């Protein structure tokens, strides 16, 4: 089935009498194999009977509120794509054709009132409040979306698999968007003209809606600034926080300058950083599938794999980059022997990690943890110093050629693989000898 159309309703009989025939005609004209699912939240005006008389599927909302209706609709949908829209005729059903044509560009297509070309015909108070809310959420969550609260959306159903959300009312729209974007799914906005509802009255209570949005905004802010967000690394490069932006750009400058022209490059644990995006002959490897999903539109060769077992043949690369990776992993000598294995003789290793012997990092990490809870600082489980790291890589047959610091805290080392065999008995020292 091509598409499932989900209509959350409470007492919308008059509007459904107009909307359902128009949706059916649209699906027929577009030659789409589809279904219309009406999710009823307890109507008392004959909505269920009217919808059933038009031959569409009617299901009862499992739970209470708009969020429960959306969840029910997602669970009932059988199409490859899932369309949600309001049943009050404020969302013109003929616009679905434009959204359908845009599906090849993204995983979520939003009918947007506030992107260039979009229009909202509503009273000044509601329009001003909506614009203010969307501007705030867009900035607070750092989303490249102007109409965060639009409920007129087309989702790739595969993106909804395993999706869980906690919001119960209209704030669920922002939560769904943040969770999908954090999983690396692509969003596109299509300009849309919004008209006031047809018959009946709105089910939004502004004060209750505002408080719910505020609570949801705070919950999703934590997610947006956690390791779970697929664009965490890229977003840091463009951060509005000057110190964070400088730090990311300095790391990028050092690493890319050293790796430039090195030949075939592996960025092991690439995340969504601009380092792998800036290099011309690089392969990005990452364990977090959402970050690979985020990068897939950049035309970069990508692989999902573990740093403990790199999925590449021996001597496959001229340069291996491991930037901000090893401190997130339990210490194991195999991390370093694997990097050596995939490097050709004489190849370059660029290794970056915080230096826990520096006063700077001892101050920065606790501060970072307070300002960005759930961020990278909470995931640093192995602490290295320059002295110990130099000792480790020397045991694995690397010679340090150059070292650089960012704010005298983050250490970046450029090493060269030496053509010397490594005695087996030197490969498995105790962790205490290599981690501070």
End-to-end distance, in Å? 57 Å
* Overall pLDDT score: 89
CATH class placement of the largest domain: Alpha Beta
Give the CATH topology of the largest domain. Spore Coat Polysaccharide Biosynthesis Protein SpsA, Chain A
Structural category is alpha/beta
- Into which percent range does the helicity of residues fall? 25-40%
CATH architecture of the largest domain: Alpha-Beta Complex
Q: What is the count of distinct domains?
A: 2
How are strands sequenced across the largest beta sheet? 3-2-1-4-7-5-8
Provide the gyration radius in Å.
26 Å
**Biggest sheet overview:** 7 strands, mixed
Brief descriptors of the model:
436 residues; alpha/beta; Spore Coat Polysaccharide Biosynthesis Protein SpsA, Chain A; Rossmann fold; 7-stranded mixed β-sheet; 15 helices; 37% helix
